[in-house]
Prior knowledge:
The complex is a heterodimer of chains A (108) and B (116).
Chain A: E1 4-7, E2 10-13, E3 19-25, E4 34-39, E5 46-50, E6 54-55, E7 63-68, E8 71-76, E9 86-91, E10 98-99, E11 103-107
Chain B: E1 3-7, E2 11-12, E3 18-25, E4 33-40, E5 44-52, E6 56-59, E7 67-72, E8 77-82, E9 91-97, E10 110-114
Parallel strand pairs in B: 2-10
Antiparallel strand pairs in B: 1-3, 3-8, 4-5, 4-9, 5-6, 7-8, 9-10
Amino acid sequence: EIVLTQSPGTLSLSPGERATLSCRASQSVSDNYLAWYQQKPGQAPRLLISVASSRATGIPDRFSGSGSGTDFTLSISRLEPEDFAVYYCQQYGSSPRTFGQGTRLEIK
Amino acid sequence: QVQLQESGPGLVKPSETLSLTCTVSGASVGRYYWNWIRQTPGKGLEWIGYVYNSGSTNYNPSLRGRVTFSVDTSRNQFSLKLTSVTAADTAVYYCASSLFGYFDPWGRGTAVTVSS
């Protein structure tokens, strides 16, 4: 089973700043099959990024994903108030599918 | 546009069977991959498994032996049964589609509490 470790656990930033979230895998993620999700309180996670860097339909271009192998990054270029939420990475290159423990992005 | 909606009892007694149903609109359950995922404050998001082609399954080894998926093409639904539940199975349960492996879209989720 691939273990995904996200860092930091909590990130405190102000609107307009840039956010950088990390996801590290315990072994290489096949074909870079790594997704990122955003979750707000009381809602289901929402897909942001697939295949490490491909934005899902309707996701603003301030969200970008990068990385390969075992190290992946989600960047948010200019934080909007609605971006403060919890973010999860997930690998789907092997079974069982696994998620990171999440990074909470909070307003400073 | 594919939409999913979970349904089922919100309270289950310990040692009993948890049964949930996901109703799909906008796509046929006879195609694609249909997943169950749960979320707890302690363990976070946990993939339970998927069903595809109206009956082939892949379960998370952590739950194998207790979980069973099924598909009802006449109602365009798929279902989860989890046996011998304990308090550790208390969670929000989501259904989700995964045509390419990532989960999109998701249902809104349904909270299940295991308690006597």
